[in-house]
């Protein structure tokens, strides 16, 4: 006999039982979160939430219970901090997992991309980076570090490494406020053919959190990419750190065989 139970209290496109555990006892903060979500829908994108004191009084809960619900919504990207207050966040940016630049991905969603230069330095590659770029540990690389912006909001941090031998005049030829992929394609005449990419969830270091403007406890999405040209030669090694509350990633899958 098939003793599997049918999902209860579920609707198409919603989680089974909307997150309620099987024993049916809902944590108080989770119930408050549901009430807050209703309020967010009423306020709309950019709407300012009342103070924590007022919200706690409205829902009849302790301030710490309310803060736990707000923390969940912050991590999920439903709200964001603005000064000392909290406002309703817009939809997350969807970045494609493909060989396109950050600039192209953000513009496709009607947002304005931008970058803020932290530094452009020449450093020794070392063992790992030298192996990834195929230049050996003593080869020199450019390290380009920039804060990523979307509509002037800080959303990520990007470190790009390329061989100095291949791009000897990068500091002269490249505008750090512009798209590096556009420079590679239109100025350096590089044509990408393939890339290896890995994604993981991390917490930002204190320095990274300060640069991106997020709380240190906010989960971040970390992407490592090594891109190669048509000859199979490594072109760049990129480490991109994105705010988990502002970004999601998409890709298109097809069956193998």
UniProtKB/TrEMBL annotation:
Residues 1-22 are annotated as: Disordered. Coiled coil: none annotated. The keyword Cytoplasm does not apply. PROSITE patterns: HTH_GNTR (PS50949). Residues 26-91 form the HTH gntR-type domain. Pfam families: GntR, UTRA. Keywords: DNA-binding, Transcription, Transcription regulation. PANTHER family: GNTR-FAMILY TRANSCRIPTIONAL REGULATOR, MANNOSYL-D-GLYCERATE TRANSPORT/METABOLISM SYSTEM REPRESSOR MNGR-RELATED. This is GntR family transcriptional regulator. It comes from Streptantibioticus parmotrematis.
